[in-house]
Amino acid sequence: MPIYHQLGKIPHKRHTQFKSDEGKFYYEQLFGTEGFHGHASLLYHVHRPTQVKEILSSKDVAPKIAVDKNIKALLLQGFKVTAEDDFVESRKALLVNSDCVIGLAAPRKSLTTYFYKNADADEMLFIHKGSGTLRTFMGNIPFEYGDYLIIPRGMIYQIEFNTEDNRLLYMESYSPIYTPKRYKNNSGQLLEHSPFCERDFKLPKQLETHDSTGDFIIKIKKQNMLHEFVYATHPFDVVGYDGYNFPFGFSIHDFEPITGRVHQPPPVHQTFETNALVVCSFCPRLYDYHPLAIPAPYNHSNIDSDEVLYYVDGDFMSRNNIEQGHITLHPKGIPHGPAPGAMERSIGLKDTHELAVMIDTFRPLMVTEEAMKIDDGKYYKSWME
Questions:
Q1: Are residues 60 and 209 in the same domain?
Q2: Of 160, 235, 285, 385, whose CB neighbour count within 10 A is largest?
Q3: Whole domain around residue 368: which residue ranges?
């Protein structure tokens, strides 16, 4: 996250002695990415963050692949994903490759009986239904419908929901998730042409500091295994930190669309990026205003990426028979475009109220068994006239 953020108490100089009012040492931890090269923060703990008491179990959670070399366009009926009580178990991986996991979740219960950490991947949670609070050792972030939550790898967290009706799109990325480089100057500040700015981000607040010992369960995901660790101290014992690596939120409703006289290409909707994919936000906006403009997107070839679209709300102008929670996959190698009739009926329209999230991956995606359970089986034929 290219913003400096400080919360709680920190010493004047890094890597120096820091004590409580009672004279007890606080324990410094570097929480960083990409070795010592990427974004990092310095945290100060009441207790050493290394006190493992026990490893209780290890469980294989690798997605089961149904189609490893896919060429078929798919429509996945996302709201058919079954709701489950447990937050982690509710996550259903649908599309995966060596760079990321894309899936859906419908958790009914808050994650409060244990703590969770993804040791392999940054996580992006998009809140389609529900509201609540993301609780982390770096502070809390309230969230609501339309929020992206970006959670760096290694973050220990819990999540509290206000109701049992929750629907999430999630992505796990094995490389860090950043805002697009082209929106920023050499210092990392977002430029004037960016569709959002720093004040739009929801930064962690309400730092929790628990000075307690006992048995604290942390479930850690690493290399497609879920390990159950018991730690001797409460994971949320940070008294303060500063730096550039921390969780944050961003509302899709704060994305300011870039429009033009003729149809703009998908990169103008870009919101996040990694070295292996991009994430775009399609938001309510005015249509193109050239006298002969065609608001519907032109047909385009997927030469370099698999395109995943998650439909959130509004009128999905370029598609037919699309509903909330649907996912379409347009695999690389096959051109796609508006559904029959969509181009013609778009002419003369002034605006759209669509809301959708797009993830374009630069490597092909494999299709899981969970995805095949909600595949409509016929979407690839939907361009027939």
A1: yes
A2: 235
A3: 255-381
